[in-house]
Description:
CATH class: Alpha Beta
Helix content: 25-40%
CATH architecture: 3-Layer(aba) Sandwich
Number of helices: 10
Low-confidence stretches: 1-17
Strand order of the largest sheet: 2-1-8-7-6-5
Largest sheet: 6 strands, antiparallel
Radius of gyration: 18 Å
Shape: globular
Amino acid sequence: MGIKILLSISFTFLFAFANDSDLQNIFDKYKINGTLILSSLNKDEVYIYNKVRSTKKYLPASTFKIINTLIALDEKAIKNQHEIIKWDGIVRGYKPWNQNHTLKSAFKVSCVWCYQSLAKIVGDKNYLEHLNNINYGNKKTGTNITTFWLDGHIRISAMQQIDFLQKIHAVNLPYKKEDINILKNIMIVNQTSSYTLRAKTGWTKNIGWYVGYVETDNNVWFFSLNMDIYSKRDLKYRKELVMQALKKKEIL
């Protein structure tokens, strides 16, 4: 069985424990180099694979669309989840991007140009203010306002992703409740009679992400995975590893 951590024990002290054997077996099975954290709502149960990597910071890639959605709404770069983001007519390599979008559809297909158009409206000064206010990652942007989450200076760790997701769930961020509820709605990946899964993938510079949380009948579990990506064939393992881990721990 995995490691059970009492509520009073901090994440820092957790590093004294060995890797969770269940999670390690999943990573070993697919020969994946990465880290995964599973944390219950009150942190009374926390499981980690590769505890050292869990605190190492990487580009957030498209997981940044989570906070980017809140920033865009707060800065009025987009009015609401229904406003149309008009396609600029440029044909891009991924067919689902080549059309008009709403926030919900843009988030679902991880539409890069959609969020780039919103980023131009937000501007670097406002981004820096938001990142500092919510203590997101290393609170930096980069030289290009439309790509800094893909190739700029911003970095975030798997552990920091967990803390951020917990604030979203608790509506403990300096944003309107209605905007956070919009975000929660568009983050839904799967909803059944027994659980609701909210999540976002990310991929850039050979690093892949899958972060989010699962609300079950009796608990909430947060997860944060990042892994090395050597080819597009590896991308499927982002979700696969997390889903196997959730099932192994009998969360799903």
